Every structure is written in C-alpha cells, then in structure tokens.
Amino acid sequence: MVVVLLIVAVVVLVVASGAGTGRQPTATTTTTSSTGTGGRTTATTTTSSSASGRTTSTVSTTTATSASTSSTYTTATSSSTTGTPTTSSTSTSSSTGSSSGNSTIVVASEYSNGTAVAGVYTELELNGQEVATAYTPATFHTTSGENYTVTVSDFKNLYFNRWSNGFASRVIPVAANASQTSLVAVFTITPQPPPPTPYTITVGSQMLNGTAISGYKIDLRVGGYSIESGFTPVTFKNLEPGLEYQVVAYWYGDNYFREFSGGDLNRYELVTFNSTGTTGVSYTALYEHVPSSQAATLNVLAKFPNGTQIGTTFNNTGYIQHTPGLWLTVTPPGSTVPYTGSYTGGSLLPFVLVSGQNYTIQMTLGFGDYRFGYWSDDGSTNATRSLILSQNTTIVAIYVLANSSSSAPAIHRGAGEAGIGATGYVVLGVAPLVGQRRRGRDD
Questions:
Q1: pLDDT by residue (tens digit) across 330-340?
Q2: CATH number for the domain including 222?
C-alpha cells in the first residue's frame, strides 16, 4: 500500500546576542512533500542563527499525516554559553512501525541537572535491524513481547552520560510490554565518565604454541556498532548486565586469528552478563604464524544446485552485511580437533593456511530445511573431506532444501557474521544457545 506522507515544518524565531558560539551562520527554509511506501518520514527544517550570537531560541512545529500515523510536536529551545542549556518541550509524537495495542517506548532526554533537552537523534532496533528513528521527545509504537534496543546519539556540546535508571551504555535493551515504557537519556555539556559498574571483559592474545603476544586489536560492539576498542591485553570496564556485547578479534601481518581459548572458533565472542552471575570474563585470542612465502588460501562456498550462494557479504551504505551462511570447521594436520571455523561468506574466509599441508574441512550436515548434498568438484556426499593445499583453492559445498517451499533466509544486520546451525552465544549465568543465526555486521 502506498502511503502518502505530507510533512510541513516551520521553524521560526531565532534570537541571537553576544559573542559567537562556533556554529556556522545559516538561514534556510525547507518544505517537503513525499510519496512512498513503508511509512517513511522526510524531515524538514528551517534554521536561523547569528555568527555573533551566544544565545539561541527556536520554536518548531511539525505535523505529519499518513495512512498509519499522525503526530504533532512543538519544541522550544534556548541555550547560553554562560551556563547549562535549557530546553522546554511539549510532545505528542508517534513513530512509524507496527504496534500491539498500547505498547510504546517513550524516550526523553535531559541534562544532568534535570533540565529537559529536545532533538536528540534516537534509533529503535529489533533483532539487529533498525525499525524506526526519531528525535526526542519520541514515542515508538512497539509489539508487546518483543525485545528492542534504543540508541541515542551525541551532538555538539551534548554528550551521553547515562540513562536515568543508571544504565551507562547508550544502547539500552527494552522488553516491550502491553503498556508504555519510559526512558530518559541524561546528557552533559562536556564528556563525563559514566557511573562505574563491576562488569568487565578482558582479552589477551597468544600464539597457538602458547607464546604471549600483544598489540592485536579487539573491538567491543553492541548491536553491531563499535562502542570501544583497544589492543591486547585490554580490559573493557563499566559494562552493563542484560546487554549483549560482541567481542571481535582482528589479525595483523602474518599472524592469523584461529580461535578463542574458550573453544569458540569464530572471531566473535557474544557475552551477556547476568545481574546475579559473574561480573568478569576473560578470553585469549589464539593466532597462527603463516609466513607469506608458505601461505595458500582456502575459500569454502555453499550453494544451492542452481548456483545461488548461501552466505554472502556486501557493503550497504557503509555497513558490511551478510545473508546467513552455513557453518564449517578446519582441522589442522596431525590433529582431530578443529582449530578454526567460519560461516560461509564470513570475514575469516578465505583462510590463510600453510601450503602443502593436509587439512580436514567439515561442513554442517544441515539446519532446518538445509541439507548437505555433495561437493561440486568430486561429487562426494561426505560432508567431511581432506585436502592437501598445494595452491590457492576454492571448494563448493552443494546444499538442497528438504522442503521445496522454503525460501532463502532474510538479510540481517547486527552482532557478527550471519550463520545457520552453529553455537557460540555466551550468556553468563545461562547455558549457551544452540542453533541460532548470527546477524550480519562485520569488517
């Protein structure tokens, strides 16, 4: 259904006096009318400022009308370089998206002294996918029983500090219920450390032979977005219970990541602290040295008989995304235990291994309606095979659908690589989840 969305925004009354604040002088007026599908909102803005002004005041009225939603909000803002900016606002706003009865998430923002501030960009995500955005004060219509995340952004002289309930991460999980859930993001005019918490993740690094190494990048993410990074050994502090963190290991030079010491063969550890469980967790990223003169690559693809690839990677406006791939492992020469693995289409592929060595590759036998069929090069129906890597090599595993009505999985964005039929979620205080799909932001 085509939704016609008319937005008229008028911003009037800007008064400036005193010395400059560093903002560039502008004077613009925009009125936008758009027609589209999916209930998208096109923002319109009129802004005026003085190059010499220290104090600004803005009054904004926005009216949106569509087949599914309507909203009106008025915001008045004033700020001064001589003290904490002050803002007053009244709002009856609604976002696009599905809803379940009166289930809503309302997001407001304020300074640490309790003074309201409007206009903070806010994102609502479900299962790693953005479902709505708005500026505070914002009301998102949600589905009761779903687990969402809400993220707020910084702006010039406006820095996130914490949520009013003490939660220190700008990305906060919210379980939608049948009524209204209210959140207040607290900001400061200069960066301030958030309140301390006891939750930590520590990551070290070493070679497969046990030799300690250092200086390898580790990224800490929430919902696929980097919130902090460091180099081994590194400890991420002041983390929050109930929030899923992604610990992502990088490699450098001729030292290639193989696995985490806890047995997770992928380069992602997913950690959720339980408020009644342990407060600290440690990992060691394990690396193998492969001199470039001895290196050969091994790429493993999964496809349907018609050639459609299962597990792909593409760049979507700056976000590396994946369609769900199938899990595989690699066992090194002289061992019966895999030492690395990936989803087809994942960032560890192609593996850089030692040329001339005999490796064992094992594909997952199946998950859901997916069933391993055969290897395209030799027709073998055994999902496990040995391969002497004499040169850069690509092998293709063919999968069939047990249910012919099944369709290819949808694209996901979020924690890490996309996968079907693998373990690896770490929930402290809860047993690891089995058979989950990983979602797709990666680099």
A1: 999 999 999 99
A2: 2.60.40.10
